[in-house]
Amino acid sequence: MPVQVTEVGRRPAGIIAEDHPLVQAAQQARREVGLPEARYSASSTDANAFIAAGIPAICIGLTDGRNQHHPTEAIAVQPIGIGVAALRQLLGNLTQS
């Protein structure tokens, strides 16, 4: 069976330093709402466009999920509230700096 692959975009993974103030502020916000520190890793997200332009950026996950980009993709609904609380805390902390 012949297969043809057409590249429709290229979005390489991006990362900023783990000790960057934005990363540290996000981890602090999570602690302040009672969440453990987030996993730190390079990833392909919309933040990459900013990182490529020299603008520090991170991806904030509001909940857990599974099977991303698959027909059986799903998210956990219950943790969304605490995820939003962490995001609000981060934004509040950043605006007070």
Structure description:
The chain has 97 residues and is mostly helical. It has 3 helices and 2 strands, in the order ααββα. A hairpin with a 7-residue loop joins strand 1 (65-66) and strand 2. The chain is flat, with a radius of gyration of 16 Å. The chain starts with 20 loop residues before the first helix and ends with a helix. The mean pLDDT is 90.
C-alpha end-to-end distance = 59 Å
Strand content: under 5%
Spatial extent as radius of gyration: 16 Å
Low-confidence stretches: none
Number of helices: 3
Mean pLDDT: 90
Assembly level: single chain
Sheet of most strands: 2 strands, antiparallel
- Per DSSP E runs of 2 or more residues, the count of β-strands stands at 2
Shape: flat
Helix content: 25-40%
Order of helices and strands: HHEEH
What strand order characterises the main sheet?
Answer: 1-2
Short key terms for the protein model shown above:
97 residues; mainly alpha; two-stranded antiparallel ribbon; 3 helices; 2 strands
